[in-house]
Amino acid sequence: MPPTVSTEAVHPAVAPIRVPLLAWLLAVVALIVFYLLLQENGMVTTGAAAEYLHEFTHDGRHALGVPCH
């Protein structure tokens, strides 16, 4: 008779992971900031505001490998 293996030994129970609401909010804010950082010049804003945002994030864009010229 072959040895028996319980199903829990093969597939141990995995506890569900609970992510706090604050972590979800932080992820959404991070994605919005990431989008603004990577936006094409003039895509979100126009005029002087676009130039200011572009120059404000210029070095960060290059650090992430995003071309802007």
Which spans have pLDDT < 50 for at least 5 consecutive residues?
none
Quote the beta fraction: under 5%
Instruction: Tally the beta strands.
Output: 0
Query: Could you say which structural class the secondary elements and strand pairing correspond to?
Result: mainly alpha
- Basic shape: elongated
- Let me know the largest β-sheet: none
Helix content: 40-55%
Give the CA-CA distance, first to last residue.
73 Å
Kindly provide the radius of gyration, computed on alpha-carbon positions and rounded to a whole number of angstroms. Answer: 24 Å
User: What is the element string, with H for helices and E for strands?
Assistant: HHHH
List the total number of helices: 4
- Mean pLDDT across all residues, rounded? 79
